[in-house]
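Note to self: the last two entries modelled the partners one at a time, which told us nothing about the interface. This time every component goes in together.
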Amino acid sequence: MLKPLGDRVIVETQEDKEETVGGIVLANNAKEKPQTGKVVAVGAGRVLDNGQKVAPSVKQGDSVMFDKYSGTKVEYDGADYLVLHEKDILAIVE
Amino acid sequence: MLKPLGDRVIVETQEDKEETVGGIVLANNAKEKPQTGKVVAVGAGRVLDNGQKVAPSVKQGDSVMFDKYSGTKVEYDGADYLVLHEKDILAIVE
Amino acid sequence: MLKPLGDRVIVETQEDKEETVGGIVLANNAKEKPQTGKVVAVGAGRVLDNGQKVAPSVKQGDSVMFDKYSGTKVEYDGADYLVLHEKDILAIVE
Amino acid sequence: MLKPLGDRVIVETQEDKEETVGGIVLANNAKEKPQTGKVVAVGAGRVLDNGQKVAPSVKQGDSVMFDKYSGTKVEYDGADYLVLHEKDILAIVE
Amino acid sequence: MLKPLGDRVIVETQEDKEETVGGIVLANNAKEKPQTGKVVAVGAGRVLDNGQKVAPSVKQGDSVMFDKYSGTKVEYDGADYLVLHEKDILAIVE
Amino acid sequence: MLKPLGDRVIVETQEDKEETVGGIVLANNAKEKPQTGKVVAVGAGRVLDNGQKVAPSVKQGDSVMFDKYSGTKVEYDGADYLVLHEKDILAIVE
Amino acid sequence: MLKPLGDRVIVETQEDKEETVGGIVLANNAKEKPQTGKVVAVGAGRVLDNGQKVAPSVKQGDSVMFDKYSGTKVEYDGADYLVLHEKDILAIVE
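The predicted structure of the combined assembly is written out below.
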């Protein structure tokens, strides 16, 4: 199991293929749409300057929307995940 | 339904077409005017360093004015929206 | 009516024409003088890290001086305005 | 009268002429000396994160020394002034 | 023994070889996967602006995942370690 | 007399000559040594976010060591001084 | 004696020679190892925003490890030292 640190959130996501010709990425349209995914784990939250911990405002199971180029891709147990900072999440899709 | 996170605000907007020739954007005038839209959802607000949550100063239904290039475009249920940080909103149009 | 957000101030201003030749801006002198305008609306003020709101130090009707290139131009009801952050205002002209 | 905002200070100054050849500034020596001027007005001071206002440490009539390229030049009632942030003032000349 | 300072964490890691041709690094694939390692030492934590010390959220023995290019490589007693800031750790692998 | 503002310190210093050929500075060695000088005046100190004033940790008469390129050169009463921020002082030479 | 200011630490260090050909530094390997040294003096510590002073977490006599390119080299009494900020120290070598 992956346990994200601080204000991080781990998301399971189906990434669109990017077509490449000779290694050059061919974006299919100039203005990329954000991507959605399902939250699989959330960190304990970030610590404020007064020592108070702020719990994340998303929870496991939430569908979330985020910028396509946010976060760090990680592989775990054969599956691909994205580790995002909570501030990179635009909205919860309900 | 889209539920924006933190100090984010979701706005419904009619975007002006940009003319392009061969993929080059042709701005119709050098000094772009800001754009207006209607607020459809607001986040819970941002958290201050002392742990206090600051409620957004716009509400659902408000007409707002913002810089044309602010925010992130999202598509939801066939419609286009713009996700803005509250600080990107210039003024409420009353 | 335009209601500026946060520490923003809306100013009515007579902008000097900029001469252009073939779209190139011809500044009439190298060191531009700041511009003056009349405050038509002020926001509720900025929120400090301790949650306290700081009221703007300019009020409706004040003549103010600001850098020529500060702020965002907005059009409302056929007139042109400038939306400034209070910190962009240099001085009140009394 | 000009009333500077926040931590700003207005200074009356005799600026040295810069020689130019074809619009190119010819600095008379590579390491420019700071400039002095007389304070004609001071703002109410800056507001700290705890809401406390810090009064400026210069007062009207003080002779002050500042970097030649600090501040914004303003013209008022036919005279030239310089609007500086207090932090741009190096020293009071007593 | 190495005792990391502040919010630093020392990690023991098996680094993948990078193939080079004439000194040029040949990345084996464009999107590098993060790396994992075992925590061997943790600092006392970072000090908040209110003087409070925040203990690290990882402990000795934890398996952690981090960006391949985070941290500083150090050699100690013939072995290679990585000194990371706690904020560079993406997740604990349980 | 020069009275430095805030966290500034005024230092009297003997600057090494820099050889120049055609206006190009010829550094006599690639890694410049820091310079020393004698403190002639100190400001009242910087103001913290809680309103508290922090007195400088150097005093008049101290010999101090600082980076050769720190600070602003000022001329006063025929002598050359350097106005430094206290944080630019590396060490007191006792 | 050198008395470092604030959060500074003075370290005595044996620097590896860098081979140069015609003044070009030839790094002996692409990924430089950090350097170690012995702490000879520590400052009083840094001042937090609440006025509290944080004592350094290294003491005179400690062996410390730091990035090869951190700090400022100073010469004192014929010997070479390095003035580091405490945050540039990676670990204490025990």
